[in-house]
Amino acid sequence: MVPLQMGVPGGVELLVVLLVSVLLFGVPLVLLVGGGFLYLRSEGNREDRIDELEREVEHLKAELDDQADNGGSATGDDRGATAGDR
After folding, report:
1. Is the pTM of this model over 0.85?
2. Four-residue CA torsion sign, 74, 76, 78, 82
């Protein structure tokens, strides 16, 4: 006799279906979550770097103001240096 319907999937078939579904949905989901985490983590580093650069700019502005108040004389370190050398 020929059965009228397929039998219930066994353990091996269910394992294959599970493996395929993990590959199709699980791996891309993990990659997206991991990429989002790394992106958000690097944002904090950018903010720290921006703050550091802003402090450096303020320090350099203060140095320029001090030099302008002292008559614009350059220190021995800056003599002969071009803008690209500094």
Report:
1. no
2. positive
